[in-house]
Amino acid sequence: MELTAESHSIPLSDGNSIPLIGLGTYANPHETPKGTAYESVKIAIETGYRHIDGALIYYNEHEVGQAIRDKIADGTVKREDIFYCGKLWNTFHPPELVRPTLEKTLTTLQLDYVDLYIIELPMAFKPGDEFTPKDESGKWLYHETDLCATWEALEACKDAGLVKSLGVSNFNKRQLELILNKPGLKHKPVSNQVECHPYFTQPKLLEYCRQNGIVIVGYSPLGTSRD
Predict the structure, then answer these.
(1) 62 is in an annotated binding site
(2) What's the sign of the alpha-carbon dihedral 153, 22, 11, 195?
(3) What is the set of domains in the chain, with CATH numbers?
(4) 58 given a catalytic annotation
(5) Which of 38, 49, 58, 117 is catalytic?
């Protein structure tokens, strides 16, 4: 089967679908020239990419959103053709911060909804203006988190129409079980974005996710040079 924008999606457990191949937009914000994310996403959409993976912590959602909107404006794609994945960062796990954080992403992107919104990491940092809070000695400032409470806040965002699908990232089996076994679960995670490539295949996690209808989204699919 020829891989086209129309044919290379797979179904998610909530009835939506996700394109198999996506463009990750992470780049070191201190070293990446301004406009790089914009040009990359623009070219990707022109080439046929429909799955764009971004995050608030990447500091470039304004460029990503501009590229998406420009390609919609020039008729290359419609909004419904694009699958955008955003992420809830570690400092925003408290339930009262979840919707405002998603709304900040929507405002930055200038879009009405994201297609997939995921908890970026199962651990939480101390809430505040600093995304990577540390104490005087340079140690991370962690924060006690209730993943089930965070998930319930995400479910409310889905019910409000701000996001089409909900997922997680970097979750292990135990952390997934916390969500799946949560009393009153309304929307199960449809995906788990994890490092997955020929040098790190994660077969046990992959099988567990398959058994529970959770799609594995592999980042660094060709490996990574980062420590």
Answers:
(1) no
(2) negative
(3) 9-219 (3.20.20.100)
(4) yes
(5) 58
* Cα separation, 57 vs 49, whole angstroms: 22
Q: Which amino acid is present at 147?
A: L
List residues bridging with 216 in a β-sheet. Answer: 192
Tokens 């990750």 belong to 24
Distance separating alpha carbons of residues 80 and 95, to the nearest angstrom: 29
Report the half-sphere exposure of 91 (CA within 13 A, side-chain side).
Answer: 14
Tens of pLDDT along 25-72?
999 988 999 999 999 999 999 999 999 999 999 999 999 999 999 999
Q: How far apart are CA 84 and CA 50, in angstroms?
A: 8
Angle at the Cα of 102 (from 96 to 105), degrees rounded to 5? 140
pTM over 0.90: yes
Nearest CA-CA partner of 85 in 113, 108, 43, 110: 113
How many CA atoms lie less than 13 Å away from 138 in the CB half-sphere? 0
With a CB cutoff of 8 Å and minimum separation 6, the contacts of 36 are: 27, 60, 63
